[in-house]
What does this fold into?
Amino acid sequence: MDWREVLAHPSVDRVVRVRGYSQNMAEHLAKAVANFCDFMGYGVDEALDRIRGMSSEEIIGLFRDYFIKRKPVLAPKTIWNWSNAIKIWLYENGVDIDPISKKITREYRRYVSHRGIPRLLKRDIIEKDEIRRILLASDIRTRALIAVLASSGLRVGVSGLRLQLRHFRDPLDKELPCYMLEIPEELTKAEYGQENPHITFISREARDFLIAYLRKRESMGEKLTPES
It folds into this structure.
């Protein structure tokens, strides 16, 4: 099934409008729905109708079969992201998925990844005091980069060093408690080789460090554009 055709389907368009998805997020959803419908062997309308007629246990079993069938051909992270997109699609189209969402996650962990979402170990976590010492010892560019990474969860190699001003959804001079970043798929080639567009946020403190760095660039004669 061509995901471009699925993108125009009313059930997908409903999610895009209700959730305020960007074009990248809409395409991500369409790819997930197309893949799920291909697995079921039905068109979008028929797949929705059949799922609406299922019991909770039958829906859980459907996701279980999807995980088992897709594990040999898709990366675990892709299966995880697409299954979440499918759950949103179902919820916004009249399927009460919330009561069984945790059980579906349990099936993912059982059949795709026994570890589920990787567990953070204490040695992997940088404490606040350590971040503060690093910031004090850093130049203005490094300070902005570390603050953005620490508050957004971005990785340096995947997208941190490739960010442009156009990726910041909120004007940087507004006094908001946090600031939205829209990460397109071309910046999210993750370790599994899959593209995972998403939205994340930076703190007001990270925003202040970033503004200071941008102002320094302007003071040196650089004209900033959305592609900067």
